[in-house]
Structures are given as C-alpha cells and as structure tokens.
Amino acid sequence: MQDTPPSVPDFTQWPSFPFEGDLHVKQLDEPVPVEPPRRGEGNRECTACNAPDEAYIWVGERWRVRAMDRPTGLPMVLILESRSHLDLGDLPNLLAAELGVMTVRLERAIRSLDGVARVHVNRWGDGSAHLHMWFLARPYGRLQLRGTFLSLWDSILPPISEAQWRENLAMVAAWLAEFGGRPLAEPPRIQWQAPSSLTATSTAAAAEDPDEETASVIEAADEIPEAEAAEEPTPEAPERPATPEQVAPPGRPGTAEQAAHPERPGTPEQAAHPKQGATGQPEVPEQGAAPEQAEQPRRATESA
Q1: Are 110 and 172 in contact (CB under 8 A)?
Q2: What is the pLDDT of residues 246-288, one digit of tens each?
Q3: Using an 8 Å Cβ cutoff, are 216 and 160 in contact?
C-alpha cells in the first residue's frame, strides 16, 4: 500500500507564493545509496574553472562576479565565485574572511541600483562543487516578491530591458572596481538618433501591444522609422503639389501671380511709396478695392 502524499503545505497560501489553483505534492523518491558527482567533482569538468575572465563583469585576484547570459525578471541576478576550486567549507581563513567582505560589498553595490529594495543572498551547492553565491535583487514596492520564492518569480516575471540590464551590470562593476580588481561590464551605447517629431514617438508607443514583453531601447528606436514610413502616402494616391491658387488667393498683392513672374516690377503705386510696410504691400482701405480707388483719397490729400 502506497503512502498517502502529504497535504499541501501552508506556504501555498502565502501572498508571495507564485502559483494558484489545484496543487498536488509529488511522491518522495527513495534515497539513492550514492549521490552522483557534481560539476567539478570526480571526472566532471568544472565550468567555473574553465570560464575566461571575459565571461565575468568584474574580476579580482581571488574573486570573480558573473551575471546571466540575458536579462531576467529581477533587476539584477549575480553570482560571486572564488578563483580557487574550493567549496564553502573548504575555504581557508583568509578566503573565508574575504568572503564576508565581498558579500557585504556586492550587496551594497546591487542595493545602490535604482528600483532595488532588498538583496537576497543564497548558496545552493548541489549543482557545482565550485563555491558560488547567488545575489538576487527584489524590485522596490513589489511586496508580493518578498521571501523565499524570489528565485521562482525571477523566471516568471517578464525580463527587464537589455539596456537597463547592461547599465546595472556596468554600475555594479564600477562599484566593485573602486575597491580593486578590474571591471569588464560596459554600459550600453547611447542611442543618439532622435525621432523627427513627438507625434511619431506617441504613435509608436500607442501602437505597442501591452501584452508583449518589455522591448529594449534599441528595439524601440528601430521601430520609429517603421512608424514614420507607415504615415507616408501610398504610391496609388501620391500627394499633389499645391497650386498657385492654393498658395495665396488671386488678386491680393504679393500673391501667387507675383511669385510666378518675379521679373515683373511692382506697380507704380508701390514704387512711389517704398516705405509702405515691411512686406512691400500697399496699404488699402478695404480688401478687394482696386489700386486706383485706394489712391484717390491719398491724391486728394496731397493736392490739398
């Protein structure tokens, strides 16, 4: 007769538990007589020992810090490793003391990032025999992510933008470099291409699907030309140039007739009064009056 599986534990009702619905506890397997070797044990190669310094964001004489190969849901996830192939309980006194200093230093560097409330420090030694400490940043204000399930939420949340991720890595590396070592993470390149108008930016932002994962700044910049191209007229209905009548109504001084014939001199009335207005247009008593009618009151005044 099989053992009855235990009931669902109380932590499934915690607000920080990332799942809901009907849950069932798995049957516990029988213990194995001999555990398999971890990476870096027996004949298995050590991934940390074979990794070059270029795979890390900061390297020192006895410690190295690396990140994931892509952005994840949390603002920052980093791993502190020792250069020597040692596990936690194998550290000599010097490295053990430095481990405490590096843990505090790295926690402060991550906590200095914008939007970070807490930094969880974890050590799981089942995957690799090489010492590695996990540092997970909890976003500020995300109270549902508090506690022991933060590592699960990291795989559930949509990843942050790559530009923000790279900027955070560069800031942490620069913070650690203030105390020695060599920073290897670089900030993202500045996207100096600006949109031609604010309307194009607003149109692209409004067309973005809210259900999609957060796009990086680089991807958003690449979408701007596409949004502008969509607003251009199609070949079937090309935009017609404005006619002279559309530029300015006929009959008014300085209108399309004069623009179409620049070789024509101005009227005698305009030549007789060169100081009339900054635009060179004669003063008329009312719109639409003929030049002769406009000059009659003036000539009567001069004769008087």
Answers
A1: yes
A2: 444 444 444 444 444 444 444 444 444 444 444 444 444 444 4
A3: no
Q: How far, in Å, CA of 151 to CA of 58, rounded?
A: 23
Instruction: Kindly compute the dihedral angle of the four CA atoms of residues 265, 270, 271, 277, in this order, to the nearest 10 degrees.
Output: -120
- Torsions phi, psi of 239, nearest 5? -75, 130
Distance from C-alpha of 4 to C-alpha of 151, rounded to nearest angstrom: 29
What single letter denotes the amino acid at residue 36? Answer: P
Q: What is the pTM of this model?
A: 0.60
pLDDT, tens digit, for every residue of 93-127?
Answer: 999 999 999 999 999 999 999 999 999 999 988 88
Query: What is d(CA 8, CA 266) in angstroms, rounded to the nearest whole number?
Result: 96
Q: How far apart are CA 270 and CA 283, in angstroms?
A: 10
Burial class (CB in 10 A: 0-12, 13-18, 19+), 188: middle
Residue 159's pLDDT is 94
Contacts of 270 (CB under 8 A, 6+ apart): 253, 276, 280, 282
Instruction: Report pLDDT for 195.
Output: 60
Find the mean pLDDT for residues 231-246: 46
pLDDT score of 203: 43
DSSP 3-state percent helix, strand, coil across the chain (nearest 5):
35, 10, 55
Of 78, 75, 74, 54, nearest to 66 (Cα)?
Answer: 78
Name, in order, each residue with C-beta under 8 angstroms of 90's C-beta and a sequence gap of 6 or more. Answer: 131
- 63-67/116-122 β-pairing: unpaired
Take residue 184 and report the two structure tokens written for it.
């290897």
> How many Å from the N-terminal Cα to the C-terminal Cα in the chain?
130
pLDDT: is 3 or 113 the higher one? 113
Residue 61 and residue 82: Cα distance in Å, rounded? 9
